[in-house]
């Protein structure tokens, strides 16, 4: 075959989520969409907030010269200024417009970060269970993913991270609120992680970057807030997007910001801007940059996700499943009542319930449910979850 062997193997590795997604399409055609309970994909179903449509309309009518032209590869300065001002409040560290660049989503931002810092063979620590595409992003730029477990509640396991750091460690990627677990790391644990990375950097004479992937920052429950990364560690890079909190994943709009005192700041930002260009993005979409600049305080109605979480957790608890209720994001990561998660997802499928096996996130023995679906789909699945549990109980 003429296709890259590596890409063939990657396509194979990422096939679990893809398989469920395709199964969903097949089953909906067969049984009717209303009879299939599809929790496989993290595609937000809540519409963007009303302000989005107002700003879009205004911006779409703008016929000033150059509105659709190329721009600096880092994005419009006024857009970066608006985001930097909001981030300064949120991070409690003053972020300048020149400390950041606009990217094609968080995925684009992580690729830009990896391309800018990695030499071939350098290692990037990824925490299990993980958003599986991280391993591909690391590999894209010649890095080696090093997989490290979190603790039994999916919190940071500092001892395990410390044990995994070597002279080749260039970065660690964290994600909080987390996909797939819904965990949110505490301020104390982030501070402890920052201290650990500083200490390890000193020991090896290296700089270890902390890349914080935060597209779910605003999707958070029980009045919690996501702690500041910049307050926790100087060599940190925040990557985020409007895919989840404004429900705009198809628009590919996000950003990346470096700590104002990050090591090698100037060459790092120069590399990042260059990476944004030569990865083929050139710049983030112009219209969406102009739109999100005016929506810094806007967000989808979080209470809708919070209500769904309540309903879903009750259904699962009543049926006898074990899980930690998510503190943020829109996923529940549930223990499978039998060891084989792929087999249990097949049993759920007999009940027309689509879930993704934990194996797809590097964590066998669990399954992930995405609750970015209408409430009726969640409540409609209750009997199926109970029956599936009944099938495997002694
Ligand atoms: N990081 C995590 C943890 C995600 O779950 C996703 C998408 O689901 C992404 C990054 C990619 O987000 P974006 O659409 O902003 O590129």
UniProtKB/TrEMBL annotation:
Its cofactor is pyridoxal 5'-phosphate. Transmembrane segments: none annotated. InterPro entries: Aminotransferase_I/II_large, NHTrfase_class1_PyrdxlP-BS, PyrdxlP-dep_Trfase, PyrdxlP-dep_Trfase_major, PyrdxlP-dep_Trfase_small. It is an enzyme of class 2 (transferase). Gene3D superfamilies: Aspartate Aminotransferase, domain 1, Type I PLP-dependent aspartate aminotransferase-like (Major domain). Keywords: Aminotransferase, Transferase. Residues 35-375 form the Aminotransferase class I/classII large domain. One of its GO terms (molecular function) is pyridoxal phosphate binding. Its EC number is 2.6.1.-. The keyword Transferase applies. Belongs to the class-I pyridoxal-phosphate-dependent aminotransferase family. This is Aminotransferase. It comes from Desulfopila aestuarii DSM 18488.
């Amino acid at each position: 075959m003429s296709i890259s062997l590596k890409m063939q193997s990657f396509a194979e590795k990422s096939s679990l989520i893809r398989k469920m997604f395709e199964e969903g399409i097949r089953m909906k055609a067969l049984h009717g969409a209303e009879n299939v309970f599809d929790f496989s994909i993290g595609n937000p179903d809540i519409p963007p907030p009303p302000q989005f449509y107002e700003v879009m309309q205004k911006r779409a009518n703008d016929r000033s010269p150059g509105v659709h032209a190329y721009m600096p590869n880092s994005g419009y300065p006024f857009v970066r200024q608006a985001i930097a001002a909001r981030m300064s409040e949120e991070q409690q560290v003053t972020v300048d417009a020149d400390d950041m660049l606009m990217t094609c989503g968080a995925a684009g931002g992580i690729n830009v970060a990896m391309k800018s810092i990695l030499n071939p063979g350098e290692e990037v620590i990824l925490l299990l269970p993980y958003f599986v595409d991280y391993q591909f992003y690391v590999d894209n730029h010649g890095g080696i993913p090093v997989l490290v477990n979190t603790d039994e509640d999916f919190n940071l396991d500092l001892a395990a991270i410390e044990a995994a750091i070597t002279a080749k460690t260039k970065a660690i990627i964290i994600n909080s609120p987390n996909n797939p677990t819904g965990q949110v790391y505490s301020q104390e644990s982030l501070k402890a992680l920052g201290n650990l990375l500083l200490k390890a950097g000193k020991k090896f004479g290296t700089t270890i970057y902390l890349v914080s992937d935060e597209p779910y920052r605003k999707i958070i429950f029980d009045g919690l807030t996501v702690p500041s990364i910049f307050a926790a560690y100087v060599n940190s890079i925040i990557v985020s997007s409007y895919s989840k909190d404004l429900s705009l994943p198809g628009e590919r709009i996000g950003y990346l910001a470096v700590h104002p005192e990050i090591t090698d700041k100037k060459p790092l930002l120069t590399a990042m801007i260059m990476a944004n260009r030569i990865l083929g993005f050139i710049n983030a979409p112009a219209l969406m940059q102009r739109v999100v600049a005016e929506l810094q305080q806007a967000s989808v109605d979080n209470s809708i996700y919070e209500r769904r979480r309540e309903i879903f957790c009750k259904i699962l608890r009543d049926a006898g499943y074990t899980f930690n209720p998510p503190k943020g994001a829109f996923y529940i990561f549930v223990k499978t009542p039998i060891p084989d998660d792929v087999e249990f997802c097949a049993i759920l499928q007999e009940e027309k319930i689509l879930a993704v096996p934990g194996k797809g996130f590097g964590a066998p023995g669990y399954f992930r449910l995405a609750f970015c679906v209408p409430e009726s789909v969640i409540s409609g699945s209750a009997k199926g979850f109970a029956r599936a549990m009944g099938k495997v109980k002694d």
